[in-house]
């Protein structure tokens, strides 16, 4: 028969193990499960922490398993080269897996209505100069991640947007708004742009 002290010690061990399991979470970079040393722990190792900080993309994007590849016709592909779908999560991958995959010619991120959205500004860069209407939108969203599209003539303003239907604006500006059911082909970060996602503001949307 076990003593009261032994029973209390066993109970303490069990409680500690249960607490450890409750704290387990996924590393924001490699997605492997780990137990953080504090409630604010985000990465499983120093290597992952450094990789995340060197990454030019917002952690809000790279930490999600919503990545695809795309071909020259901008059709979404899985990491193995099969057709992917913006509405089928089984065809998506982690950022790390999509980055090292060789299928297609680039990477894309899936918008699924969880609050991440994109303003797609088309035909707003000519000879390296950003059109004034596009610059106004950039200035209104200076704190969020912005990239140059793969065409080199457009911009993607990434940020936080409530889910809603897609919208196109053609009033001398060429603006498209997306929050769900679509993938966005990854371009290159606009020099000086933030690496964070912030609420998107678009002045004069009428």
What is the fold's blueprint, element by element?
Blueprint: H1 4-23, E1 25-26, E2 33-34, H2 46-54, H3 59-62, E3 67-70, E4 76-77, H4 95-100, E5 106-112, E6 116-121, E7 125-126, E8 129-130, H5 132-140, E9 146-148, E10 155-160, E11 167-170, E12 174-178, E13 180-185, E14 188-189
Antiparallel strand pairs: 1-2, 3-4, 3-5, 5-13, 6-10, 6-12, 7-8, 9-10, 9-14, 11-12
Q: Briefly, what is this?
A:
The chain is α+β, with helices and mostly antiparallel strands and 206 residues long. The chain has helices spanning 4-23, 46-54, 59-62, 95-100, 132-140; strands spanning 25-26, 33-34, 67-70, 76-77, 106-112, 116-121, 125-126, 129-130, 146-148, 155-160, 167-170, 174-178, 180-185, 188-189.
For the largest beta-sheet, the strand count, sense and barrel status come to: 6 strands, antiparallel
Structural class: alpha+beta
DSSP summary: helix tally: 5
**How do the helices and strands follow one another from N- to C-terminus?**
HEEHHEEHEEEEHEEEEEE
Number of strands: 14
For the largest sheet, list the strands in their spatial order.
11-12-6-10-9-14
The gross shape turns out to be elongated
Distance between the termini: 79 Å
**Which range does the strand content fall in?**
25-35%
Mean pLDDT: 86
Low-pLDDT ranges: none
Considering DSSP H and I runs of 4 or more, what fraction of the residues is helical?
Answer: 10-25%
Radius of gyration: 22 Å
